[in-house]
Amino acid sequence: METNCEYPKIPRWISTESGQWAWRECADWRGTASSALSVQDRSKLLQDAESRWAEARSAAQPLREIEAQ
To answer: What gap in Å lies between CA 37 and CA 35, rounded to an integer?
Structure first.
């Protein structure tokens, strides 16, 4: 069994790739998500994770283009 000391195990309700990314990468998001109980709160958090993930990917895109040259 692999353990990770950087962050706790991802809750089962976080099933999207963007949500799992946010859990690993965004401590503030993880703190809010760990205490979210209602479906509405969790849905909002997953939408926020999707936005953050899209921003992170678009910010990384120019780096990939530069590295490819």
So the answer is: 6
Tokens representing residue 27 in the block = 């401590």
- CB-neighbour burial class of residue 22 (10 A; exposed 0-12, middle 13-18, buried 19+): buried
What digits encode the pLDDT tens for the residues 14-36? 999 999 999 999 999 999 999 99
Structural contact between residues 23 and 29, judged by C-beta atoms closer than 8 angstroms: yes
pLDDT, tens digit, 9 for 90 and up, residues 31-51: 999 999 999 999 999 999 999
Helix (H) or strand (E) holding 48: helix 39-68
Torsional class of 47: left (φ above 0), alpha (ψ -120 to 50), beta (otherwise)? alpha
